[in-house]
Queue: 2 jobs
Job 1
Amino acid sequence: MANMAQAIRMALHYAEENLGVTDIFGEDVGAPLGGVFTATQGLKTAWNTPLDERGIIGMAIGLAMAGQRPVAEIQFADYIYNTIDLLKIAGNTCWASHGDWNLPMVVKTPVGSGIRGSLYHSHSFDATATHIPGWKIVMPSNPLDAYGLMISACQELNPVMYLEPKALLRIKGEERIPGEPEDDKSLSKLIDAPLGDRSQWKPQWPAELSAYAVPIGKGKVVRPGSHVTVVSYGRTLPLCKRAADELASSGVDAEVIDMRSLWPYDWELIKGSVEKTGRVLYVNEDTEVTNFGEHLVRRTVEELFYKLLAPPRLLAGKFVPGVGLADTLEMASVPQLGDITAAIRALASEQP
Amino acid sequence: MSKPRLLNRPEDAAPLERDLLVRMHDLMVKARVLEERLIQMYKQGHGYFWIGGPGEEAFNVPLGLLMKKGQGPAYDYLHAHYRQSATLLALGEEPIGALRQMKNTASDPYSGGRNFAGHFSKREWNIAPVSSPIEVQYTMAPGTALAQKRHGGDGITIVTGGDAGTAEGDFASCLVWSSRPGMELPVLIIVTNNQWGISTPAGTQHGETHVADRGRAFNIRTKTIDGNDPINAWRELKEAMEYVRRERKPFLLEAMVSRLYGHSSASGANFVGGEQDCLARFEERLLNDGVLTREQMNSLRSRYTEEMAALARQVREEPLPGPETIWNHIYAERK
Ligand SMILES: Cc1ncc(C[n+]2csc(CCOP(=O)(O)OP(=O)(O)O)c2C)c(N)n1
């Protein structure tokens, strides 16, 4: 099975060939590297830019205005903050011009902890991204969704922020992407650049790739359950699934929802689940103050208060200035499996 | 490397066809009267904020007249700033749109009552939406220019902004991205230098002799011109545009202009002395050269004044956007 970086690459290849993507660009996105995480290796429209994040976002806006379909990469979300007013403009251009202009552009950027990224290379961007109206924001937690969300992003008329959980980029999926070859080794032979000299290398793309799309705004129940609802996305999602699986033997039956899209998001799915279980835990790794999960908690309280058997909970990153490099520091800063298991167990057994 | 050429003297300018001179004068008067009306609307409480371009007509009118107007990469893109009503009028825009934007009526063609005066946007003519943050347009310009280079033809991207704003990184971004070796882009990078950033004199903030000099470091052809003379501006713009159209490379043009009513309504929007008035100067010349009589020019101004007053009265009666329209156009939808 493909890993997430390969899935994104295949989706972008499909989008270049079939969805009108004209430019995939960013720092080190073109040959020879194909992006720090290899998600753009071998793509025919990939090119390298000056080391200038504002220039990258501005270029994407300009290209989108002129009828091209750009996919811009910010090397790490940690470095997107100096583009914030341009992101705001990309989000408000349609509204400000009373619908005259729209910007079909994708910005992809790796986010979050899990690769020992130290103070930088570990930031989350979900709270900030969801604070900028006019964007659609997605974050996959497995390669198949990564593929399907990228296909949807490249079909959009509006700016899409595509957040890539770094910690999951090299993990193989459990479900096959429609059209990917049967075994991983042959996939790697086809599309992974060799080490060393790559100047003559060209990928061979699987011919059967399709427009398999995960609709933006649709979440997914990844594990049905009846006692407690766990809502997550990105790196923490597989941890929530594992925690739920482990707890099943001790009689706690947790339903796990992968949001996949942060904006717009699948409130109907969350609501239905919380109405069923009466208990909900939101999990993400962004710092906990003015966290996107706080919005979800607020909405849960306002709309579902009388269905709740316990207060809704948020398990998020600690409100500290960074993620420290030492293993102990990182582990203590963002939710780990043990934290999630404990939080689900506590919530499932909470009595007024 | 190209050498920057400095201000040329007015007498160097070959006279233009009479028709063109008359047309430029007409548009300059129209733009001036429009701005004066906008200021008056603001002062009468028919608008919350004024910012605009009285003093820049001599440069902005020729710019609009020289643009290749249309939609898509075959035509010129304009990434404007907020002092360019004269450019819009020269392109053929009706002044009532600016009045509607000032009054933030539902009929405001640029933003549906959402944005400030002078914040134009018109996709049909490749006018990118003017955005309040200073200089951001300079980072977007290389994007439309890349699409144009790819498209072929002679369409170019034009980006304008103020001198103070060139301190922003976006201006540097524009120089870097439009001049990458072998990948130069057809951008006419314009700085209209009125020598002020709100209340701060340029001389206290910028060490470069001319803003245009900054282009030299990037091997960008540059020039600083007198933007208060429409004949000179026409010729210089034409030359710069022809270069960008033909060579598909950037050109940095710095135009020295005036700011006749201060920075914006925030600084009072009153006429300030001591700045050269490009319209008065041009009228002097037209008079001396026997192109137009004082009477002709005066009656033109009164005609426009009456017209704008009538339009302002009309706009006053137009409804504001309905509150429910805040939800419109957050996203574009497939039709
Ligand atoms: C990024 C940003 N910072 C500050 C402001 C506030 N502001 C509005 S106009 C202006 C001065 C701009 O001066 P200049 O670039 O010379 O243009 P001019 O107004 O003189 O044409 C400032 C600081 C702004 N609009 N955007």
Job 2
Amino acid sequence: MSSRQLLQRRAATTAAVPEDAMGNRKTAGRSGRRKPRLSVRARKQRWLGLAFAAPALLAYGFVVIVPIVQSVSYSFYSWDGVSAARFVGLGNYKSFFTDPELAQSLAHVLVLVLFFAGLPILLGLLSAALLGRGKMRGAGIYRWVLFLPQVLTSVVVAVIWKRIYGPDGPLNGALRAVGLGDLAHNWLGDFTWALPALGVIGTWTALGLCMVLFVAGVAAIPNELYEQARLDGAGPVKEFLAITLPALRGQLAVALTLTVTGALRAFDLVWVTTQGGPGTSTITPALLLYRKAFLNPDVGMAAAIGIVLAIICLLVALVITRLSEEKA
Amino acid sequence: MISRTERVLNHTVLAFVSILVLFPVVWFLFTALSPNRGGQLDFTNLEWGNFSTAWKLGGFGHAMLASAVITIGAVTGQTLLAILSGFAFGVLGVTGQKIIFPVVLLGLMISAEVFIVPLYYTFQSLGLTNSWLGLIIIQIGMGVPFGTFWMRATFRAVPASLVEAAEMDGARTWRILWQILLPISRPAVLTLALLSFMWTWNDFFLSLIFIADPAIQPATLALGVFQGRHSVDVNLLAAGSLIVALPVLVLYAFFQRHFIRGVLNGALKE
């Protein structure tokens, strides 16, 4: 999970609304300038525009669009990367229902969603409910700290937490120090605990971001609303449900989309900490994709996993955006 | 109208979470300075030499150079293309944009997993795997959707009258872009460049797939290898991690407003 995804998801969801939604609101005048009828000059200008956009479009087409189309076609074949490919139709997609490793990886995603999305958002909301009203001294410092995990490389995050969870790491040290030494584990090497332990790393990374997002959202709520509610005799709970939560709908959509897709796509963290182990206890779809594409090649299957992941991510983004806008 | 208790409560909660977030990082920082291979903290005996030892053992000199080349190439390319295409879609208009623009925006929702497999085989046949240029090209191509989106919104926020006035004065297309729109948009361009720096530098997945040769691997990958090989030298491992994270951390320290505002704005505007 990274802030890159955050930006991209949000940009995408806003863009999915009517065509020019994001630029035109502010500069309605300009679009009027070229819309009515295309004069010769305007048409020439649009060809010039195409020339300006061409380098970007070429790079994008080469790196993203063409391979996506190829991915779709790969996904109908069984291919080990060397010998001749064999057409298998929807066979690779059927594996999602029959292959135990795939099924297991999808089940792990559900657990990760709980940790990557559920916990950070709940805790973030809780803190937003407590905080955010009025200017706070030191808000900048808190923001700086809370945002920090977002700028740390995932590899470094993984290495840090591997140390924390290690047999003689600080977590076990703390447990022993308070007399709970029996609970000490090699957390990432344990069949039961490895997946939740990974999940907690996700919570740690996403919590700050969710808080920064929600607190910024609450800060934008006009104070009069709260004062009005207080005058009407609303308690803190009612205040939260009636004012804060509805006002945070946009931020919630962002946080949810980002964190859920982050859980779906988890790779770096898992790869560096456990490589999917012990056994297959922390395997994720992205990890299977990597294995099948590059370690013991089943290229068609890898492509199919990629496509399915993309479709699920797209659906998640669309559904959440829909829901967040419906009640607006 | 905030009561004193409320203010105290606010600070308590925020401080508590901040400590939770900061603790692993600070602990790790002191681990990097530990004289002991097992990483036991020893505040009286900070071992700064760990950094140079890790630097040598992990081959981080080469790796940081690789990361620097890849990142500078990608940031330059992404920013330039974003400026040009943002200008095209935001100001000039583009022939066929009704079809082209949505396709570009689709890229915002798509992540690398979807196209990585065929891309690998294409790059392999072109000799672009195991090369910095290959990674730069991928990063540039992947950066197009966000860059276009970002710069288009930026240029559109410039008052139309300004551009019209310049047109009236006979300014040509190039001059409008370079002398009017760009200077005004400098903060947005800086934010874009910083974000793109962070994303490229921090990348692990793409490097893992496209760079197999240890001699040319970027820093994140080198760290991955280093942690596999030196998992017993916890202090060196921590020092190596900090070396790899440092460039982005330094930028974050100086330009944190741009990072945070960039992310929040990109996430929340409109």
